[in-house]
């Protein structure tokens, strides 16, 4: 686990989240007119993972159960394709967020039943780290203490089971950005959530040194009329994390949460620029890394190289951001053509 943590936090690299569940990937494909089938999901993920040079910027990829069992067209298991690029395969192990009984509008993440057995199998299949995502909705009255506590407890039990199976847990409590709330409200809810999660991790004897925390940035709600800029968001994010995340946690990785790809990179840059933090900070984006690549791919083998260039570009920009060296100029500079080769 120590080696996996160190490798995931390798300087200048971050994590690609490619663990969309069946309904989520279907929604993203549908928006582009791509039919979601076992084969289209396989082809899409093969396109992502065979991007030449991705290992320069990406240390780990979070897979979905189906993908960990799939192979490339040439018959190579997906986990092996990643390992050959020097990328560590990980796996989403939760079974999704379902309605929390008696708490309208709130969700509890499922998946603890049978988890010990599934974890043992995932390790056999080549996974070295795991992820569990809890979602916390924000409005005038939400979240409730009960929702935060229930999700924090499940996250901590997941993390303890994962460490028992020698898999590094990525503990992800996501405070959703949907809503009209202000950045101050987001900071308040994120602070309460992270305090509860870190308390539960302690209670469940999770070894903080052998896990990563995945969180959203502190941002204005997506429908808030006043949108805080990158500087304000970075200050609020760092203040919130410093107040809640123990220094023993080796790394904090950010989700993108529905921000546009350039905006997520810009904010990550503001967070990392000149900030002195007790934990390493990097990205673990899903949409903000994949969106341009999926748009370029559109389900056609003819578009593979263009899509891979788009992924490579976003990975490169986010790698620059964690060094505080990203600028809008980077979006304009042309990239060297990638050779299509087997990796
Ligand atoms: P986004 O970056 O698209 O929010 O996805 C990250 C993730 O892993 C959500 O669980």
Fold and architecture overview:
This protein has 343 residues and is α/β, with parallel strands linked by helices. It has one domain: TIM Barrel (Alpha-Beta Barrel), CATH 3.20.20. The protein has twelve helices and ten strands. The chain has helices spanning 2-8, 22-31, 38-49, 65-68, 78-84, 115-124, 145-164, 183-203, 230-244, 261-272, 287-297, 304-322, and strands at residues 14-17, 58-63, 88-92, 97-99, 107-109, 129-136, 168-175, 212-215, 251-254, 280-285. An eight-stranded parallel barrel has the order 1-2-3-6-7-8-9-10, surrounded by six helices. It has a two-stranded antiparallel ribbon with strand order 4-5. α7 packs across α8 (183-203). The radius of gyration is 19 Å and the shape is globular. The relative contact order is 0.14. Mean pLDDT is 96; it is low at 337-343. The chain binds 1,3-dihydroxyacetonephosphate (13P). 1,3-dihydroxyacetonephosphate (13P) is lined by residues 17, 133, 172, 255-257, 285-288.
Structure summary:
This protein has 343 residues and is α/β, with parallel strands linked by helices. 43% of the residues lie in helices and 15% in strands. The two termini are 26 Å apart.
Strand ordering within the main sheet: 1-2-3-6-7-8-9-10
* CATH architectural name: Alpha-Beta Barrel
What about the largest sheet?
8 strands, parallel, barrel
- Write down the secondary-structure element order: HEHHEHHEEEHEHEHEHEHEHH
Number of helices: 12
Low-confidence region ranges: 337-343
Number of domains: 1
- The whole-angstrom Rg is 19 Å
Coarse structural class: alpha/beta
Small-molecule binders: 1,3-dihydroxyacetonephosphate
Helix content: 40-55%
CATH homologous superfamily label:
Aldolase class I
Mean pLDDT: 96
Coarse morphology: globular
Percentage of β-strand residues: 5-15%
Compute the separation of the termini in Å: 26 Å
Q: Would you count the extended β strands for me?
A: 10
CATH secondary-structure class: Alpha Beta
CATH fold naming: TIM Barrel
């Amino acid at each position: 686990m120590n080696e996996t943590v160190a490798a995931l936090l390798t300087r200048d690299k971050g994590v690609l989240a490619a663990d969309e569940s069946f309904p989520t990937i279907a929604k993203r494909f549908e928006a582009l007119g791509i039919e979601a089938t076992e084969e289209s999901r396989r082809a899409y993920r093969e396109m992502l993972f065979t991007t030449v040079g991705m290992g320069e910027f990406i240390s780990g990829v979070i897979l979905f159960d189906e993908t960990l069992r799939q192979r490339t067209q040439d018959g190579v298991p997906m986990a092996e394709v990643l390992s050959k690029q020097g990328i560590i395969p990980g796996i989403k192990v939760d079974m999704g967020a379902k309605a929390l009984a008696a708490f309208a509008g709130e969700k509890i993440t499922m998946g603890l039943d049978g988890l010990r057995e599934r974890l043992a199998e995932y390790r056999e299949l080549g996974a070295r780290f795991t992820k569990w995502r809890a979602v916390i909705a924000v409005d005038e009255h939400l979240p409730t203490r009960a929702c935060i506590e229930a999700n924090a407890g499940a996250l901590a039990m997941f993390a303890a089971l994962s460490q028992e199976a020698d898999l590094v847990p990525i503990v992800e409590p996501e405070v959703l950005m949907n809503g009209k709330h202000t950045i101050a409200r987001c900071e308040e809810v994120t602070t309460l959530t992270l305090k509860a999660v870190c308390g539960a991790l302690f209670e469940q004897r999770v070894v903080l040194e052998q896990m990563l925390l995945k969180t959203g940035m502190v941002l204005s709600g997506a429908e808030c009329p006043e949108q805080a800029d990158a500087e304000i968001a970075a200050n609020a994010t760092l203040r919130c994390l410093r107040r809640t995340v123990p220094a023993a946690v080796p790394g904090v990785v950010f989700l993108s949460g529905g921000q546009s790809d350039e905006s997520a990179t810009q904010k990550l840059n503001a967070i990392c620029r000149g900030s002195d933090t007790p934990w390493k900070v990097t990205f673990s984006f899903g949409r903000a890394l994949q969106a341009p690549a999926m748009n370029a791919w559109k389900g056609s083998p003819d578009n593979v190289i263009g899509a891979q260039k788009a992924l490579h570009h976003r990975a490169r920009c986010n790698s620059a951001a964690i060094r505080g060296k990203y600028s809008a100029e980077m979006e304009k500079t042309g990239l060297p053509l990638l050779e299509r080769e087997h990796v």
